[in-house]
């Protein structure tokens, strides 16, 4: 994988405005359509979360059917051209970014208006509960239509997860279309940390790694890891693991927010605080590469980025998903009722935007550029799988036969396709594993739901308490 | 014909600024601080603050950081400012420049640089969180202590010192009875410039891997969890502390100019 290109966000915005101005000139020039006829689509996405174009020639991706991808323009600008060619209608994308789900939510409640946005699953559920979302249309779900790349291309695995999620009787599947997905795990330096240590969330309490491991400065991620430690004995018991309703039970345990659980989590996180290097918002990746820390709680996409960076500095980092469970997360596109304001043309353009991003070529572009994994498997189109194969397959003639393993990701690409990669053994602990976790990881993953108001308040209070200074604890620690 | 601005007119730009960015936000903060999430008048958040061991712990922790920072700054800045003020004209200005120079560079950049230097010495920054916090705070705020002290000490009339010496005061007495009392206004303004900001300067803690909250981080964390009410409560508590300290320090400075100054004259 090539590393992230750091393109100035502002530049993208300037370009799109410049593009819009150019467009307006053309339109007024030919006089066929007025400026009113341009649909303006206001898109809100995460920072660094879409292909911004401007690739070098050596970065080009080539496919067996002759297609070459080497984009110059950002994906959302290419969408404007594609939309005009396909539907004969001008659309102008106003692209803006946000840093956290809470920031997006705050922007929306303060009065910023967007037509389509890309929050994470729990925020999608929160918005759904608060009636902020418009469902996708029937046409969008029709697999017969040629332009419906999303329904045709979405991975059967992701589609199934979406179908199981609902809140207040509303199905997430009706209101959201997936974009990127991944797991929560541990990036570690194999020379200092064993795979065994990284195989449990207890690593965060491991005194061998005292002040040399970091955790994300995020309530939800910290909570998930701590709950996993808290109920480790329950989860790892044979009866639990072999139960028929293992998935449901896991979901229930990891989404507990009762006072007793929260109190226990507070004690665990408090100990974690005394053991970790820091609660990091963004420094973890760099600290891993510079060697300040030797393990780091991380999202899979950032893990890929960190491992790529380390490779450039000629050393190896690995990614592990603890055996207790992992937080299965996915960001998805939602249509915002306030922005669309029942404008059918706008909704159609927004849905087309999702479809354009779901084209196999777009998925490959994004994955190359940002390192996260697209929810698109491509359906009957081979390009996504071909891309994964080209990136991770090992050549049996070049590698030691003992190092080669078969890696099955057909859960993601669908049973019709023989999605088994022949790859080197170390890739099963590295980028490939982070991008497409193995089937057993998928089995032990759980979605972290949107907590109810009381639960949320309890957890936020707990988090503040963990971070605050307590005289009692200080006295105990100092004079023990 | 030249148009002359009256004093009132000259004050208009700042008055607008003051209203929009100081008074209006303050009113909003006051509104949120005395209501609950339903928008009804409520004091429960204050009760919650003063009943919670964690909140009081944070207040204590921030105060300890602020006091230590201020005292250390004062101990370093006073002799420095004294030497600068009493040095020969040319060299003193160059020296002063050296001390004020860091102020022109953004503090996050300075802390980033300091962080690397500290890593070099300490190896693992997280093992010395508290020490590093104080060190970075002092580094950050030292110029704010030196400047007001320097200004006061340069204005100090040498004839007072000479008079004291002529009348047979020992060096230590000259300092304690003449110089120190006369520099109280400088000390007071230096202390207010350092003490309060260091209670809320949580970016420094974030940057050097101290994960414990201070008052500033508390406000930030409440606001990012959309808890406007609790965030405003903390702000108001800080505001009260500011008011108390300013009131006390004003009394000191007034006393100083009115009584001591007159006595000496």
Question: What is shown here, in short?
Answer:
Chain A is α/β, with parallel strands linked by helices and 480 residues long. Chain B has a domain at 51-228: MetI-like fold (Orthogonal Bundle), CATH 1.10.3720.10.
Structure overview:
The complex is a heterodimer of chains A (about 475) and B (about 260). Chain A is of the alpha/beta class and about 475 residues long. In chain A, strands 1, 4, 5, 6, 9, 16 and 17 form a seven-stranded mixed sheet that branches. In chain A, strands 12-11-13-10-14 form a five-stranded mixed sheet, sandwiched between helices. Chain B has a domain at about 50-230: Orthogonal Bundle (MetI-like fold). Chain B contains twelve helices and no strands. Chain B has helices spanning about 5-35, 45-50, 55-85, 90-100, 105-120, 130-155, 160-165, 170-180, 185-200, 200-205, 215-225, 230-265. Classes of the chains: A alpha/beta (about 475), B mainly alpha (about 260). The interface of A and B includes residues 106, 273, 463 and 470 of A.
What percentage of residues of chain B falls in helices of 4 or more residues?
over 70%
Overall CATH class of the domain at 51-228 in chain B: Mainly Alpha
Low-pLDDT segments, ≥5 res of chain B: 258-265
Strand content of chain A: 15-25%
Structural class of chain A: alpha/beta
Q: Biggest chain pair contact, residues each?
A: A-B, 25 and 28 residues
Radius of gyration of chain B: 22 Å
Structural class of chain B: mainly alpha
Number of strands of chain B: 0
How would the global form of chain B be characterised?
globular
Q: What would you say the CATH architecture of the domain at 51-228 in chain B is?
A: Orthogonal Bundle
CATH topology of the largest domain in chain A: D-Maltodextrin-Binding Protein, domain 2
Overall mean confidence score, pLDDT of chain A: 89
- The N- and C-terminal alpha carbons of chain A lie at a distance of 50 Å
Strand segment count of chain A: 20
Q: Main sheet of chain A?
A: 7 strands, mixed
Q: What is the annotated CATH architecture of the largest domain in chain A?
A: 3-Layer(aba) Sandwich
> Ends of chain B: how far apart?
46 Å
Using the coordinates above, name the CATH class of the largest domain in chain A. Answer: Alpha Beta
Report the principal-axis shape of chain A. Answer: globular
């Amino acid at each position: 994988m090539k590393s992230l290109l750091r393109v100035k966000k502002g530049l993208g915005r300037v370009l799109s405005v410049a593009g819009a101005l150019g467009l307006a000139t053309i339109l007024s020039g030919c006089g066929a359509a007025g400026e009113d006829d341009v649909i303006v689509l206001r898109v809100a996405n995460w920072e660094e979360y879409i292909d911004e174009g401007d690739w070098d020639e050596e970065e080009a991706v080539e496919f067996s059917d002759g297609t070459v991808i080497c984009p110059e323009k950002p994906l959302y600008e290419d969408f404007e051209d594609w939309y005009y060619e396909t539907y004969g209608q001008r659309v102008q994308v106003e692209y803006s970014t946000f840093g956290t789900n809470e920031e997006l939510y705050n922007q929306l409640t303060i009065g910023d208006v967007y037509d389509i946005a890309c929050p994470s699953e729990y925020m999608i559920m929160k918005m759904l509960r608060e009636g902020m979302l418009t469902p996708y249309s029937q046409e969008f779900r029709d697999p017969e239509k040629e332009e419906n790349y999303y329904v045709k291309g979405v991975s059967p695995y992701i589609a199934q997860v979406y179908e199981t999620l609902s809140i207040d009787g509303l199905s997430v599947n009706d209101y959201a279309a997936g974009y990127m997905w991944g797991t929560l795990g541990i990036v570690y330096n194999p020379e200092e940390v064993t795979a065994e240590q990284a195989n449990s969330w207890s690593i965060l309490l491991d005194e061998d790694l005292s002040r040399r491991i970091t955790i994300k400065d995020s309530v939800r991620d910290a909570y998930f890891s701590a709950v996993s430690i808290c109920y480790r004995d329950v989860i790892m018991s044979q009866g639990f693991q072999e139960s028929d309703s293992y998935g449901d039970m896991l979901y229930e345990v990891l989404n507990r927010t009762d006072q007793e659980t929260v109190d226990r989590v507070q004690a665990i996180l408090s100990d974690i605080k005394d053991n970790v290097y820091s609660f990091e918002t963004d420094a973890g990746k760099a600290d891993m590469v510079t060697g300040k820390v030797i393990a780091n709680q991380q999202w899979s996409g950032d893990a890929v980025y960190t491992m790529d960076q380390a490779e450039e500095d000629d050393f190896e980092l690995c990614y592990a998903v603890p055996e207790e469970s992992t937080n299965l997360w996915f960001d998805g596109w939602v249509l915002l009722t306030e922005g669309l304001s029942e404008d059918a043309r706008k909704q159609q353009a927004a849905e087309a935007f999702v479809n354009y991003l779901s084209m196999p070529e777009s998925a490959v572009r994004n994955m190359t550029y940002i390192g996260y994994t697209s929810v698109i498997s491509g359906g009957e189109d081979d390009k996504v799988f071909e891309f994964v194969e080209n990136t991770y397959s090992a050549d049996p003639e070049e590698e030691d036969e003992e190092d080669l393993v078969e890696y099955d990701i057909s859960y993601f690409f669908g049973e019709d396709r023989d999605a088994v990669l022949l790859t080197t053994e170390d890739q099963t602990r590295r980028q490939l594993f982070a991008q497409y976790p193995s089937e057993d990881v998928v089995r032990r993953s759980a979605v972290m739901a949107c907590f109810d108001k009381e639960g949320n308040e309890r957890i936020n209070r707990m988090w503040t308490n963990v971070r605050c200074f307590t005289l009692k604890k200080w006295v105990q620690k100092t004079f023990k | 014909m030249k148009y002359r601005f009256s004093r009132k007119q000259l004050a208009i730009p700042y008055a607008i600024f003051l209203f929009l960015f100081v008074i209006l936000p303050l009113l909003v903060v006051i509104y949120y601080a005395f209501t609950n999430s339903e928008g009804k008048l409520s004091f429960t958040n204050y009760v919650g603050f003063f009943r919670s061991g964690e909140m009081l712990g944070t207040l204590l922790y921030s105060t300890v950081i602020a006091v230590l920072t201020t005292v250390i700054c004062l101990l370093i800045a006073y002799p420095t400012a004294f030497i600068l003020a009493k040095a020969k004209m040319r060299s003193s200005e160059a020296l002063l420049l050296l001390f004020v120079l860091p102020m022109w560079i953004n503090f996050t950049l300075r802390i980033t640089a300091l962080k690397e230097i500290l890593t070099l010495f300490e190896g693992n920054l997280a093992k010395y969180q508290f020490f590093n916090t104080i060190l970075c705070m002092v580094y950050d705020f030292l110029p704010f202590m030196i400047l007001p002290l320097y200004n006061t000490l340069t204005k100090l009339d040498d004839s007072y010192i000479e008079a004291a010496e002529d009348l047979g005061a020992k060096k230590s007495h000259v300092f304690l009875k003449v110089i120190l009392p006369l520099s109280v206004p400088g000390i007071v303004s230096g202390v207010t410039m350092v003490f309060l900001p260091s209670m809320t300067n949580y970016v420094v803690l974030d940057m050097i891997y101290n994960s414990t909250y201070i008052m500033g981080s508390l406000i930030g964390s409440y606001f990012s969890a959309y808890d406007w009410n609790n965030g405003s409560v903390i702000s108001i508590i800080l505001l009260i502390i500011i008011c108390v300290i300013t009131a006390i320090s004003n009394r000191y400075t007034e006393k100083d100019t009115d009584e001591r100054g007159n006595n000496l004259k």
